[in-house]
Structures are given as structure tokens and as C-alpha cells.
Amino acid sequence: CGAGRIGASPEVNVRDIAEQFPLADRWLSVLGISHIFTTSIPPQHLPLAIQLIGKAEFALSAYSALGRELRILVDETPTWTPYYRALNYGESAISSLYQARHLAGKHFGLRLFEKDDGSPMHRLNSLYNVAKHQVAQQDEPMWLTNEGFACGAATLSYQEFEDILGGTAALAEAVANGGQ
């Protein structure tokens, strides 16, 4: 069982980054109102803004859900259900976060990482690719540990993930507020 990847004396080292962005669930509405009443975002950039904000907000939400499930796993009788829920939320958070960063990088002409540089973004990409291309016959191509996410090719600590997520959410919030 995947819960075996979580240590015998587990701690939940997942911070709820969403608490730093209490209006995240309203970012798209703020963007819409801003777009209607101001010209802060050129119309040709609106699709990118909507996708970036939506993916960043969902990554925050999914990561919060991962933390809730891990706390259930630790605080109650350990069972498979909260572990696999946490893993699924984690895969969703990884996918949404990577896609948001990829969109922003393409728009601004920025490389997210250099090939095989071992940076947190490179490792996030490795985890994203595993989540995206999972084969049902493989036994747990990605798993959770006390420290973070892991797959055969990479590990990414919860702290590293939270740093990337926090920066991406701050960007999404700025875009929602018209770049201010």
C-alpha cells in the first residue's frame, strides 16, 4: 500500500498556502470585472490570464485538499483511502501548477529550467510527466513521503512545492488585479 511510503511516525509538513491567498476563489471574477470596466489586460492576453489564474487557483485548492487528507491519515487510524486521496490531489496540484508555470514561461519567453539541472522546476516537470503518463500496470509510479513527492526519477519536498506554488499564486493574483 502507498501508505507504507509515509513513515511510521508521520508528520504533516504541508502548509496550507491557500491561506495566504484568501480571495483566490474570486480571482477569475475580479479579472472579468476588471476586463469589463478597465483596459488593464489587452484582449489578446485574456485567454492566457484566464488559464493562468484558473490553474493556479486549482493548484492551491488541490494542495490544500492534499494537506487535509494527510492530516486525516496521521491523526486517525491509517487507512488507504486518505493516502490515495492525498496522492490524487497531489497529482492534480502538480499538473495544474506545472501547466500554470509553463503557460507563464511561454508567454514571457522564459525557460523554466535547463535540461537535467536538478532544480525544483526540473523535478516538478519530472513529477508532472510521471503523473501525465502513468501506466495502470505500474505499481505506484508516484508516491508521497513524509518530506514530499517522489517518483523513480525525482523527489520534490513539500517546501519546494510550496515555494513554487506561492510564487505562481502571487503572479496569478497580480494578473487578476490587472497587473497591479
Structure summary:
The protein is mostly helical. The chain has helices at 27-37, 46-75, 80-108, 120-132, 158-176; strands at 142-144, 148-151, 155-157. Strands 1-2-3 form a three-stranded antiparallel sheet.
Structure explained in plain terms:
The chain has 180 residues and is mainly α. The protein is 57% helix and 6% strand. It is built from five helices and three strands. Strands 1-2-3 form a three-stranded antiparallel beta sheet. Helix 3 (80-108) packs across helix 5 (158-176). The longest helix has 30 residues, at 46-75. The protein is globular. The chain starts with 26 loop residues before the first helix and ends with a helix.
Strand line-up across the major sheet: 1-2-3
Radius of gyration: 17 Å
Assembly classification: single chain
Q: What is the structural class?
A: mainly alpha
Strand residues, percent: 5-15%
User: Tell me about the biggest sheet?
Assistant: 3 strands, antiparallel
* Number of E-state strands: 3
Low-confidence stretches: none
Distance between the termini: 47 Å
Please give the count of helices: 5
Taken in chain order, the helices and strands follow as HHHHEEEH
Observed structural traits:
180 residues; mainly alpha; three-stranded antiparallel β-sheet; 5 helices; 3 strands; 57% helix; globular
Topology:
Blueprint: H1 27-37, H2 46-75, H3 80-108, H4 120-132, E1 142-144, E2 148-151, E3 155-157, H5 158-176
Antiparallel strand pairs: 1-2, 2-3
Helix pairs in contact: 1-2, 1-5, 2-3, 2-5, 3-4, 3-5
